Amino acid sequence: MEGRRVRRFSMGRARGQNPQTQTHHSLLPIHSHSNPSSPPRLSTTISCCYYDFKFWAFNQPLFYFGRSHSQILRAWFSIGVGFGLTLLFSISLILIWELGRALNLFHGSFFIDLFSRFSSSFSTSIADAAYIFIATMVSVSVHELGHALAAASECVQMEYVAVFVAFLFPGALVAFDSESLQPLSCFAALRIYCAGIWHNAVCCAVCGLALLLLPFILFPFYIHGESPMVLGLPSASPLSGYLSPGDVIVSVDGVPIHNVQEWMEMTALINELTLRGRNHSLDVQGFGINRIKGYCVPNSMMEESKQIVIGDNQSSCPDDVTAFTPLPCDHTTILDHNHPSRIEKTHCLNAKNVVKLNKCGEGWAAITNGSNCMCSQEESCLSPVQIPGLIWVEITYSRPYSLECLRVRRKSFVGPRISDSMESNCGGTFVFVGDVISMARSVKLTAYQPRWAFPLGTYLPNILERILICTFQVSLTLALLNSLPVYFLDGESILEATLSHFALLCPRKRRKVLQVCLLWGTLISILAFFRIMLYTL
User: How far out from the chain centre does Cα 94 lie?
Assistant: First the structure.
């Protein structure tokens, strides 16, 4: 028959009292051992909000493993006791800080900041829900495995393993024989109670190390850090007409892009400089950058183009062409594009043809000592007319896995002659005019490029990264939750067993201290939870 979930150590337990004649308590799930010779193989419990699945297949293997390596495991989980007590003390200080924050005594919130960092990494998509579910099962299994191995090293027989779903949240637990828990010392019990938190901390360390070493692990199959590759584009993305999954972003405004972070930083820098409206150069990693970007347009192309007169930033160019205006050699005499009194002859040119020309002006990041007089005598430096609220960005990309590009690669081994049209099938350059921040966020990128095109090979590194990141976050959350000094979690058992070491306090005082700590810890934790809910709304 099943035992009830109660505390392991009774505060009124007298020293030297026979453990067989007193009432025993434990926060761990326990059973009154009735018929060990024929335990059931499977058992389920179903209700409207709860479902569990109990099985006994791991009882003997885990018990034998724990008994065979008891000395090593006890030393291992003794380290976990130090970590668990340190985390319990630290989380208690954070709860005091949260109480002061609620009373407007301090600024900032640890739990809100932590939740905002975690929530920013995930969306409400089905894929992210699957990652969270997998990470939760892994983290909870690692947590309960720690309890089971610690108990086995102390000769405590495990009754069963249960996997459950409560209010759509998955979980797992291990149950122990109530009679086997009684002879344990306080420190031995602490090894069992702190084992779950300790294993979650180790799981976080393993996930972090795996993320750090993932480029080296996947090196035989993937190129990392060369250029970001497009994984997906929603239909609403402003780049949906330019890029497709499998394309590689080579540069932005002539600056090489190696990873997703550089992609976001470069677009943010361009947006910031445009909003500030600066016309002087800003040095970033040795590159001069400002808003003035020009192209060396041949005079013959200018003569063939339509010439119009613009004023007050109004242009009458057709939709398929873009307005360009000449830039004088002396950059100090350049008129502000946004100045209301500016009236100047402007040429309507095809942007697709212009971006293939040489660049001029000080606005290009790839040109260190840019000048408006870099063009030859047969060329003029023209700059696109800036529209308020919109930003001109030149993006270079490649398509290394397209069929046309693969054919070009095969022919390159046969002969050196490759036509320009065939080379254009492997990539190109386009101009985006609009909100660069929303543009950068709308595309899903990865820093890994497969060395060979094979099915699902493009998405494998991203899947591994997401699982490792999600497992790290869920395991950390589980460790922090079980360290809280609240009712019904590991923190209650750890705090109670810790107070049992204080011989200066009588059992009655220890019981009062425990109840006060648990009551206030639970109330402050609930307050922090509601603050997080209000923050998300």
Answer: 24
91, amino acid identity: I
> Could you give the angle at the alpha carbon of 287 between the alpha carbons of 283 and 293, nearest 5°?
100
Question: Is 192:30 a contact under the CB 8 Å cutoff?
Answer: no
Of 98, 144, 492, 496, which one is the catalytic site residue?
A: 144
DSSP secondary structure, 78-119, as one string: HHHHHHHHHHHHHHHHHHHHHHHHHTTSS---HHHHHHHHHH
Summarised one tens digit per residue, pLDDT across range 152-162 is 999 888 888 88
Residue 451 is which amino acid?
R
C-alpha dihedral sign at 401, 404, 406, 408: negative
Q: How far apart are CA 400 and CA 248, in angstroms?
A: 8
| Contacts of range 463-469, beta carbons closer than 8 Å, 24 or more positions apart | 464/214, 465/211, 465/214, 466/127, 466/128, 466/131, 467/131, 467/134, 467/135, 468/207, 468/210, 468/211, 468/214, 469/121, 469/207, 469/211
314-345: pLDDT as tens digits: 556 777 778 888 877 654 444 444 444 444 56
Three-class SS state of 448: strand
Q: Of the candidates 165, 176, 179, 163, which has an alpha carbon nearest to the alpha carbon of residue 42?
A: 163
303 is catalytic: no
pTM: 0.75
Q: How far apart are CA 326 and CA 299, in angstroms?
A: 11
- Which residue do the tokens 């000592």 mark? 369
- Note whether 499 and 510 are within 8 A (CB): yes
